[in-house]
Specification:
- This protein has 220 residues and is an alpha+beta fold.
- It has a single domain (7-217), classed as Spore Coat Polysaccharide Biosynthesis Protein SpsA, Chain A (Alpha-Beta Complex).
- It is 25% helix and 24% strand.
- It contains five helices and twelve strands.
- It has helices spanning 28-38, 52-59, 80-92, 176-184, 203-217; strands at residues 22-23, 26-27, 43-48, 68-73, 97-100, 104-106, 121-126, 138-140, 143-145, 153-160, 188-193, 197-199.
- A four-stranded mixed β-sheet has the order 5-10-7-11. Strands 1-2 form a two-stranded antiparallel sheet.
- The protein is globular and about 40 Å long.
- It starts with 21 loop residues before the first strand and ends with a helix.
Length: 220
């Protein structure tokens, strides 16, 4: 997912799409693409809107990452997560597919995520960060539930079947109603990721992440 405007990251994102914002000298989206390749994933679809041509110019067909990249063009107005995925469905094939928000950073192992029978989606949850202390969803075993207490934060990473989007129409719409529908039908599974994760949503969080990654890897 790489179509958003990145309003909270302005003025950085006035001229640079958020997925290309550098972290320790590497575009944020580059970390995802490297992890996808290491997980054995070969085909990637990237949705585009704001400054999308810059993303295409930077990543090309994906061969530098050992991937084959296709692009889902949304036009000048991003379609939000639900609408963006729905528009990309013809490029994603008939089976389940992995979704990764391009404005996050994590060490989630994409290779082990899979859907079991009877589930239309499986999402990765994380402990609540300071900017989302209330959380999003509860977890009972591996079943995602909608409750008011003891909630976790959706990481922006999940595996879905095309059936998750049954009944949707083209256009701009959020993911949350679809997730609530799946929760009510008991077909949304989840797991808690206890490793590293950051929603790179503000210049301050970006600066903090950049410093941490540089310190860890000795980036110059």
């Amino acid at each position: 997912m790489a179509a958003g405007r990145g309003e909270r990251m302005r003025p950085i994102t006035d001229t640079l799409p958020k997925p290309l914002v550098p972290v320790a000298g590497k575009p944020l989206i580059g970390y995802h693409l490297e992890r996808l390749a290491r997980a054995g994933i070969k085909e990637v679809v990237i949705n585009l809107s704001w400054l999308g041509e810059r993303i295409k110019a930077a990543l090309g067909d994906g061969r530098d990452y050992g991937l084959s990249i296709a692009y889902s063009e949304e036009g000048p107005v991003p379609l939000e997560t639900g609408g963006g995925i729905f528009r990309a469905l013809p490029l994603l094939g008939a089976g389940s597919f992995l979704v990764v928000n391009g404005d996050t950073w994590s060490d989630i192992d994409y290779g082990h995520l899979a859907l079991e029978d009877g589930a239309d989606g499986r999402i990765v949850l994380v402990r609540n960060p300071t900017h989302n202390t209330r959380g999003d969803f509860g977890l009972e075993g591996d079943v995602v539930v909608d409750r008011e207490m003891d909630r976790l934060t959706y990481s922006g990473v999940g595996v879905y079947r095309p059936e998750f989007f049954a009944g949707c129409s083209p256009g701009k719409f959020p993911m949350l109603p679809l997730m609530k529908r799946a929760i009510a039908a008991r077909v949304l599974r989840g797991e808690l990721h206890r490793g590293e994760w950051c929603d790179v949503g503000t210049p301050e969080r970006l600066a903090s992440l950049d410093a941490e990654v540089r310190a860890r890897h000795g980036a110059q």
